[in-house]
């Protein structure tokens, strides 16, 4: 489902964020991406979601080399991917329902279908009773769950999460990880970048360790800690 072949990424500043990364994540798999701060975890996720492109090597997602995807096809491609960030990026002046409905409205879906899909997503993250509330009225864990509902409302084949539990206490963090596990059980391929080693171990899924590229030793790359 996701394949990196000899992928390197150098930012225009000259910073080498990834060097010679090889990785394969099968359809329906769930894995954690870990490594020190600056190891390139966010960069790797961005390359999958077409938010940036590799400097060299191939990133293959759902059978397509991301370099060959034309700009006008990018929105359709991204609909296969649900992305969750640590700071959920919710619109504070919109209700929970409207935040989650946004990607479907952009797609031009009919109101009745939007309602059905938003409620199904809210149900999956256990927030059905909060659809009329505004983000300011929610706890940190609830806000994060709204972010997850918005990312999965399109029923994406791939779910990517960048430090989704970074601001949460251990119980809430565990809850969120189990929510991801459920989406994986429904069939989505899930890749989560996280520093939370204890929690990751508890989840008993594959762990991929990214090593920070050292400027003096560009052979550093990715070690697959399966
Ligand atoms: N837009 C950018 N321009 C220049 N350098 C960048 C950019 N984004 C990231 N970097 C650099 O690339 C390297 C990898 O960054 P990245 O954010 O991918 O790491 P990370 O493993 O996600 O780190 P963290 O755990 O701290 O979030 C870092 O040295 C970072 O400073």
From TrEMBL:
Swiss-Prot/TrEMBL GO biological process terms: cell division
Membrane topology designation: Peripheral membrane protein
Protein's cellular compartments: Cell inner membrane; Cell membrane
Main location: membrane
Domain of life (superkingdom): Bacteria
GO CC list: plasma membrane
Pfam families: ABC_tran
Annotated GO MF terms: ATP binding; ATP hydrolysis activity; transmembrane transporter activity
Keywords: ATP-binding, Cell cycle, Cell division, Cell membrane, Membrane, Nucleotide-binding
Membrane found in the keyword field: yes
SUPFAM superfamilies in the cross-refs: P-loop containing nucleoside triphosphate hydrolases
Residues covered by the ABC transporter domain: 2-224
Xref: InterPro entries: AAA+_ATPase (IPR003593), ABC_transporter-like_ATP-bd (IPR003439), ABC_transporter-like_CS (IPR017871), ABC_transpr_LolD-like (IPR015854), Cell_div_FtsE (IPR005286), P-loop_NTPase (IPR027417)
NCBIfam families to which the protein is assigned, alphabetical: FtsE (TIGR02673)
Function according to Swiss-Prot or TrEMBL: Part of the ABC transporter FtsEX involved in cellular division. Important for assembly or stability of the septal ring.
Family from the record: Belongs to the ABC transporter superfamily.
Oligomer and partners: Homodimer. Forms a membrane-associated complex with FtsX.
UniProt-recorded name of the protein: Cell division ATP-binding protein FtsE
Organism: Cocleimonas flava
Gene, per the UniProt record: ftsE
């Amino acid at each position: 489902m996701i394949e990196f072949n000899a992928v390197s990424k150098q930012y225009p500043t000259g910073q080498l964020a990834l060097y010679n990364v090889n990785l394969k994540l099968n359809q329906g798999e769930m894995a954690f991406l870990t490594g020190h701060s600056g190891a390139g975890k966010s960069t790797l996720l961005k390359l999958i979601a077409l938010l940036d492109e590799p400097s060299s090597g191939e990133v293959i997602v759902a059978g397509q080399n991301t370099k060959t995807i034309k700009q006008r096809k990018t929105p359709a491609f991204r609909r296969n991917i649900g992305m969750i960030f640590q700071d959920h990026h919710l619109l504070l002046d919109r209700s929970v329902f409207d935040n989650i409905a946004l990607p479907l409205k952009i797609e031009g879906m009919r109101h009745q279908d939007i309602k059905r899909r938003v409620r199904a997503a809210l149900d999956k993250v256990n927030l059905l009773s909060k659809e009329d509330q505004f983000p300011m009225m929610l706890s940190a864990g609830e806000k994060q769950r709204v972010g997850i509902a918005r990312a999965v409302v399109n029923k994406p084949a791939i779910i990517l999460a960048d430090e989704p539990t970074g601001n949460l206490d251990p119980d809430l963090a565990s809850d969120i990880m189990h929510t991801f596990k459920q989406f994986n059980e429904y069939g989505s391929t899930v890749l989560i970048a996280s520093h939370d080693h204890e929690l990751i171990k508890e989840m008993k899924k594959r762990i991929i360790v990214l090593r920070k590229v050292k400027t003096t030793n560009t052979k550093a790359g990715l070690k697959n800690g399966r």
